[in-house]
Fold this protein.
Amino acid sequence: MKLPVIRWGQGPLPALFLHGFTGGRESFRHLEPLLGDVLTATCVELPGHGEAPLPSGSGADGFAQTIDALAELLDRPSAVIGYSQGARLALALAVRRPRQVSRLVLESGSSGLRQRRARSQRREADERLAELITTRGVAAFVARWEALPLFAGLRCLSEADREALRQRRTAHRADGLAGALRCLGQGIQPDLWPALPTLYVPTLLFSGACDEKYTRLACQMAAQLPVSWRVCFPRVGHAPHLECPRAWADEARRFLSTPWREEAAEVPEVEVGPVRGDEHAAEVRA
């Protein structure tokens, strides 16, 4: 599976950017003036979005195929930066291929649902959402999506920025977004919590203070990760890279420029599958 990409920046650090649900490869373009001197960015279009195909497998097989396709884009150890859905994929990529990930930036992400019943319930909810998209169309879905309390912070953007965001979201295909929910949703993602203590990739966790759920998850993940730095932006919701891009870029620049110890190479690669077994706070653990 080949995923479309765009590239920008001329910085020394290679970085792979993974967008959220209904996003696309242009989702991080506004960061180019802020980070283009630090990064050489590869921004990927995830399965079911824009021109990107869906994986041939469904469910967990499709999730694993997506991780493999992302790994093929890393020809050398790179920073992997993901938002929401993209953060979940970025974490799964780092767990499976730690030697290919030099830095990890997770914005409003999750390590997965821990209970089998919760994953089953989430798959059922995502299936209902997928059916709504295919029956009522993308525009009706996007209107409902934008009205969620989770995205209240985006309603503070300028009218021009909100309209540009809406146009990008409504440009997707209904079958593509529905398919993405069925292979990349939280009900499909494996439980990665048990893998966190073994992941020595330096990790920056971003959240917005107004997004209490994902700020709480960031705190819990930081407590499990051996090398982590957590930043919570005040008066910001689920999408800090859009709501406060300059502050986001400043924190990312500091983290990406830090000469972290390269310990990831010592960690064995693992399969991604069912695993058994303050307002502006920064936390570094080693």
